[in-house]
Amino acid sequence: MKPQIHLIIALQGPELSESETTFLNRVRPAGVILFGRNLSAGLKQTTALIKAIGKTAGAPTIWIDQEGGRVQRLRDPLTRHPSPYQFALLARTDPIRAERLLFTAGRLCGEELRALGIGVNCAPVLDIREAGADPVIGDRAFGAHFSEVIMNATSWLHGFRQTGVMAIGKHFPGHGAARADSHLTLPILDKSLKSLQKWELNPFRAMLDFLPGLMTAHIAMPQIDDGVPATWSRSLLHKLLRQKWRYPGVIVSDALEMGALNGSMEERARRAILAGCDLVLCCTGRMEDNEAVIEGIERASRTLDVGEDEASRRRIRHVLAPYRLEPGAIRRLLKDPGYRKRRAQVEAVAEEAFAVDPTAPGIPSTRTHHE
After folding, report:
1. How do the domains of the chain map onto residue ranges?
2. Which listed residue (127, 225, 254, 289) is catalytic?
3. d(Cα 26, Cα 281) in Å, to the nearest integer?
4. In the chain, where does DSSP find H-type helix?
5. Integer CA distances (angstroms), 64 to 33, 112, 227, 319, in order
6. What is the DSSP letter of 226?
7. 218 is catalytic
8. Residue 81 annotated among the catalytic residues of the structure
9. Tally: H helices and E strands in the chain
10. Which residues does residue 66 pair with via DSSP β-bridges, in sequence order?
11. Cβ-count burial of 360 within 10 angstroms (0-12 exposed, 13-18 middle, 19+ buried)?
12. One CATH from 3.20.20.300, 1.10.10.10, 3.40.50.300, 3.40.50.740 for 7-342
């Protein structure tokens, strides 16, 4: 089997099983994304898992969601990061301190991920918080106005990019105004492209040059593509992002198993690739789901123009190559005086305790939540 370069998968637990090892060696996906279920046994086991994944054929990149606040897969004993909106509140009263702390928080996040060998972070969130919307975004947003999101997310990203870990902005073209949770059902946002360009699209457009990857939203916009979710919308992904904006980075689907999408896993993957996604996320940890997604990818690749498919493959290889990282000395980092000082500064404005993650998967299933 040729490498499944369009595929990002998840695992069942904190150790790489024999069947997962066999799958990784046979399939050679582009990446493996980690969730709380993979990280519950402590840093030593997490490092061992990442090393084991790295030894399989193709040495896939390691992915994670480490936004801060509620959505933070890696928790104790690492930094308790404030929610993005906590920084927005601080910036309204003390913008200089907020800018400094955002830079520091981004740097801390990247330092910790790099020390563990995690090369790709599905952050920052570029959605705009909106009153009356479903709380699934809420304090995950860097502000309630696009100018706030741009300013605060850029400060965070400047610090993060210094560490050599890849950032993926999400959820294109904007999930903040959604009145429903796309983990459960398909949100409808009845706005024209002109309206989106005046509001939701601003953070993505402004930060495009700093983001090697963008993640799609499972949100339908009837005025743009007849109610098709953005993940399946060629109008948004190919015509707008690729052709009009000339975006050179990779486009990643949100998790295919989420409730906003319908149809088989094979069909979900096929439609995402045909719309313009370079990479698709299958986060259930089930081998049968992975196999179905592979079939969908291959069906789409046979349908796509040869030049477009090859361009996508080149893009994936080029963008992901620098982010295949080896685990470093995480324990040494945790003891470093400079790191500890920066961490104390950031945690001083964090919530008192880790909040419940609204996106965390439970027992793996075809309805497992991701973003």
Report:
1. 7-342
2. 254
3. 18
4. 18-27, 36-39, 43-54, 84-93, 95-116, 146-161, 193-198, 201-207, 222-225, 234, 265-275, 287-303, 306-320, 330-335, 337-347
5. 5, 12, 30, 17
6. T
7. no
8. no
9. 15, 10
10. 72
11. middle
12. 3.20.20.300
Instruction: Give the mean model confidence (pLDDT) for residues 11-36.
Output: 96
Q: pLDDT per residue over 321-369, tens digit each?
A: 999 999 999 999 999 999 999 999 999 999 766 666 767 654 333 333 3
For strands 31-33 and 71-72, give the pairing: unpaired
Location of structure tokens 């946002």: 189
Name the residue with higher pLDDT: 48 or 363: 48
Structure tokens at 96: 């200089």
Place of tokens 């793996």: 364
Dihedral of the alpha carbons of 63, 111, 323, 16, in degrees to the nearest 10:
-40
Of the residues 6, 183, 218, 369, only one is catalytic, namely: 183
Contact 178, 130 (CB under 8 A): no
Give 76: exposed, middle or buried? Use CB within 10 Å, 0-12, 13-18, 19+. exposed
Report how far residue 120's alpha carbon sits from residue 324's, in angstroms, rounded to the nearest whole number.
Answer: 9
Q: Is the confidence at residue 371, as pLDDT, over 80?
A: no
